[in-house]
Amino acid sequence: MTTSDKKKIQQDFKENMDYDELLNCMRCGFCLPSCPTYIETGHQEKYSPRGRIALMKGITDGVVEPDEDIAHSLDLCLGCRACEPVCPSGVQYGHLLADARTILQHHKKQSVPVKMVRKGIFNGLFPHQDRVEKATGLLGFYQRSGLEKVGRKIGFMNLFPKSMAAMEKILPQAPKRREIKARPRYFAHDGEKKATVALFTGCLMDTIFFKTNNATIKLLQKAGCDVVIPENQLCCGALNGHNGEMEKAREMAKQNIEAFEKSDADYIITNAGGCSAFLIEYDHLLKDEPEWAKRAKHFVTKLKDISAILVDLDFQKTHRLRLPEQTITYQDSCHLRNVMHTFREPRMLLQSIEGAHFVEMEGADTCCGSAGDYNIVQPEMAMQILDHKMEKVEKTAAKTIVTANPGCLLEMKLGVDRAGKSGKVRAVHIADLLLEAVD
Ligand code: SF4
Ligand code: SF4
What we know:
Bound molecules: iron/sulfur cluster
Strand content: 5-15%
Largest sheet: 5 strands, mixed
Distance between the termini: 62 Å
Helix content: 40-55%
């Protein structure tokens, strides 16, 4: 980084960081024990929330020069936001991190191939659900045609980074594109009608995890909801937002708000913690555009996770939930817990299943290492965190690990595979498990 680059970054921090929010941190350190990277790095301050805030403030004040080490400190943050609920000052760490990453991303010198890959993913893929569907169609073809088996045999995936090769093994069976296209956009309630809800289908949830979206729809119907699937909705924008591509994320937010306004539903339902946390901050994302901020506010007031709406509608009291005898445990989605504040409801639902013995896992509220694309871009730290998480799973003796976010689900599947427990322990989304359990 040249001196001129450093000065430009400092200037951008000065102009764009929320200085009041930086000042909010009173350096008490209450957040330190909740931070996975602080713990996993042997308590290094620069990998803690307090340390990172101090570095951001130092750059903004012009007393700290940005360098590779600081960029690494911010890159190593999981963005899990476990530091927020425990902060007595209510520091909005997630917003500070997003702003700092956006500035650093803007100034990053990238090679042409990296720029092209980023452009392809953040501009060319996620903002176009039809392309995500096409990509899933290719994955399905790869899985069904026998290429997957041949590829594994000849070590084709060894050409890719280890972290991607590991992920390939645990991806679920992708649906056929025509299956996705054939799904209706309206589903009527079962029994007594209690609400009309609009489902936020998501990009990965409506392709690779299509089955889980269908389970979610069935649960909502059984709970007494008319379910509508608004057209023209797309990916929430979280992957763009977390990777410093805020402008694109804002465009995606606007398209989603418009799509759901037309549905006029009582609630907007999500089944992915990572998406819901991004969706619920659309008003913050669009805060500088008053008209959109107002529409975003209306949007976020309707947002609810699937577990929360089911508990609100007394689903576990009006339906008998039953499974074969087994021990189950729950891994929180960080964003569902720390941003949506939904953590009691999944446990209430799981504890009401007859035959299932629910065991709370020590540290269920700490990140599993998935964190969006973190396990791809920071594989070493992600695997260190995951292996420690699997030690905690082992202590519960659970045969079923339940999660509420696609990234966490894949990560737990990977953890099971790494721990050599495939076939003995399974990881499952809460919507799939509840549908399996309901009479
Ligand atoms: S708990 Fe909050 S105020 Fe205290 S050091 Fe951490 S971020 Fe700062
Ligand atoms: S978001 Fe998570 S990893 Fe990052 S500073 Fe906060 S607790 Fe630590």
